[in-house]
Amino acid sequence: MSWRRLLDPLRTVGRRGVYLLLGSVIATPYAVLGWALAQVWRTNGAAVALSLIVVGAAIGLTPALLPATRGLQIAAARTLLDVDLPDPLPDARLDQQTRLRAALWYFLHVGGGAVLGAGLVIVLPAGPVLAVSYNAAVGLAITAAEVTVAAYAVAGLGALARLMAPVLLGPSAVERIRALEERQELLLEHNRLARELHDSVGHALTVAVVQAGAARELLRTDPEFAERALAAIEERSREAAADLDHVLGLLRRDRLREDAPSGDIAGLAAHAKITGDLGRLPGVVRREAYRIVQEGLTNAARHADDAYPQVIVVVGDRTVTVEITNALGGGPRIPRSGGGRGLSGLRERVALLGGRIEAGPIEGARWRVTAWLPYA
């Protein structure tokens, strides 16, 4: 065995020793209480002492069962033993099994700390005392042996504690379920951000590609059109930058806001026929209606030769209906991004609001997407 491997356990003696010494500190009041009860037993008899022992046991057991004690033990084990333990839920009631596991850990910690503290107080002074009063060489040798044994004992007890901590301080069933729910919410949030990127930046890039292609084709024969196309590319690029900044804000763990996007349907599609007041819609419904129109225009630009698909928005008493109709086929061949996530993303959005969506070809070689979003 190499020296490096032999000395490797001693690298963690410091923090693990501190953790075990915390146990010895906690054990001190128990030791004092035990000594006091022993004195009562000796001076007042067993009858009086037994009643006090029952009261003392209840007092001594109480800290082990408190949720706050479990939280402190988790924090200490995570910091000093390098154990990966989740934070306990502050509003969750501990079940009996979790309480008993935490109590067992508490008393193991106190017991281990008491043994270590007693060893340090009783055994370690023997070597220095021998060195001073009997033989210096023998005393120093004994002291070195005691320190070495103590260091490896601390390393061993710390390793054992690190192994047992996840078992006795691990999450309860409620905490595991809550962690799974939080993870699911995080995945849903990531999916939502992916949709935001697809629907906003993807739309702007598609329009920019179409406009750039048209400008290149007509640059020499129709410079005015080319100039308008370049202006449109500039505008869409600004919108994409704003949308990208919005999504990056969400990625920085900002809360999802329920307000509407900066644009509105009339600004997105000037030719849209809008019936009713869009301002009466809740922010989340208004935003999804905007995204549906945006996605419809993007698909029309990608797959059809229809620069101005028909857009109809009707705000009813309880539902807003969004309908986009465009021509089929013959459009520019632009590589799809996201493997066709556009329509599936719309279905997910509409389903989250409790609405429904239909999409498919209709008579006259046209394609129609209709979504119904309830808001009341």
UniProtKB/TrEMBL annotation:
Occurrences of domain Histidine kinase/HSP90-like ATPase (ranges): 287-375
EC numbers on record: 2.7.13.3
Keyword field contains Kinase: yes
The protein, known as: histidine kinase
Lineage, broadest ranks: Bacteria, Bacillati, Actinomycetota, Actinomycetes, Micromonosporales
Pfam families per UniProt: HATPase_c (PF02518), HisKA_3 (PF07730)
Taxonomic superkingdom: Bacteria
Domain Signal transduction histidine kinase subgroup 3 dimerisation and phosphoacceptor: 189-254
Database matches in Gene3D superfamilies: 1.20.5.1930, Histidine kinase-like ATPase, C-terminal domain
InterPro entries membership: HATPase_C_sf, HATPase_dom, Sensor_HK_TwoCompSys, Sig_transdc_His_kin_sub3_dim/P
Keyword RNA-binding: no
Keywords: ATP-binding, Kinase, Membrane, Nucleotide-binding, Phosphoprotein, Transferase, Transmembrane, Transmembrane helix, Two-component regulatory system
Native organism: Hamadaea flava
Reactions listed under catalytic activity: ATP + protein L-histidine = ADP + protein N-phospho-L-histidine
Residues spanning the membrane: 20-41, 47-68, 103-124, 136-160
GO MF terms, alphabetically ordered: kinase activity
